[in-house]
Amino acid sequence: MTTYDLVGVGIGPFNLSLAALGDGVPELRSLFLDGKRAFSWHPGLLMEGTVLQVPFLADLVTMADPTSPWSYLNYLRTHDRMFPFFFSERFHIPRREYDHYCRWVAERLPSCRFDAKVTALEWDEAAAAFAVTYRSSAGADSRVLARRVVLGVGTEPVVPEPLRPLMTEAHAGRVLHSADYRTHRDRLAAMPDVTVIGAGQSGAEVVLDLLRAGGPYVRWLARTPAFAPMEYSKIGLEHFTPDYIRYFRGLPEAERERLVREQWQLYKGVSAETLADIHDELYERTIGGAEPPAALHPGAEVLAATVTNTVTNTGDAGGYTLTCRHSPQDAVFQLRTSGVVAATGYAAARPAFLEPLSDLVDWDDKGRYQIDGSYRVALDPRVSGEIFVQNAELHTHGVGAPDLTLGAWRAATILNAVAGRTVLRVPERAAWTTFGAPRVPEAAGLDAPRSVGSLR
Q1: Closest to 133 (Cα-Cα) out of 125, 143, 123
Q2: pTM assigned to the model
Q3: C-alpha span between 278 and 144 (Å, rounded)
């Protein structure tokens, strides 16, 4: 079997970033595997007009190595789009173009291999390496050895418990997660009434897209107390820096969990532009006293979902009844709807192929990875190899885990740890904010407080 220094499992933006940055390290032999036939990034939400919520500089490489040939600017140059991009004065680029940019990189990196679904990851004690088994769509199995593995398998859609019994083939296209919205968009747009659940960016984009389609009455429900804009102030964005990660990692677990819950607007809010577009659409549609084609209900959670009528074989004659509770008023109410889109986010999940290694991973008391500052997973001492993770560390590293802003920095941090040297310099300080108590100079004659993550 071929032995690699590094095998990446999953080729999403984060592992693709690692593959791109590692492409310039001659002594590093790496392989990245993904079961898909080609790169794709949230295909169910690549609607026209949607943009990234981070600037184009948060591409695969620039925040760690702006000289890399795999930058977004070099992609534009290669596709003769530098002048159109310059004249468009864009800082936030179309999602569809970001997806095309990533595909351009993935197709050209020799380390990336698609149609290769990892089915097992085991520790081979004799070889002192991980045995990685993967399978093609034709059913052919292959096996390689890896001294280090980076898990970049992404997250899985989260569906509220009351809706899970309806997430079956019988209700396909009428009850779905927003991850599949684009696939069923035309059918939803032809319904008389659609309910969207979730107050994040995906929910807002689905609401806006359905309003622009001009067909269904759109109802927007969310548990949050408001349809709130994402925190996007210049100082607020310093939560997405290495400084904040260092501070967050030093906090007690209970405090970390509290912060993640309370900081939802940092990573689960809606862009102010999308909220403004929804408002403008409703304003236009109500000129002359017309009834609004939508209803917005914050502070409401779904308690139960049932089939209202028998669904025919020809379309949407049936429907659903949602039993909801308005939390601040503790008032229960019911809604009838033809379709439901659960824009209820994503969460990290333990991949099935990791099961052979399960007893060798040092899980925390909630069954999650324990992860150090270099994104290395704690393993049994008998394992001399290393496993790293990307976007599975919200509980240990904070709100920056799923954000593209820190993608290249995290990949560079992992790359330096894998190489055992500084391949790419990462900044020691990136924020003006001092997270944690400041240290008092000894000359002041005061007892300096113990500072977590303080840099001076």
Answers
A1: 143
A2: 0.92
A3: 50
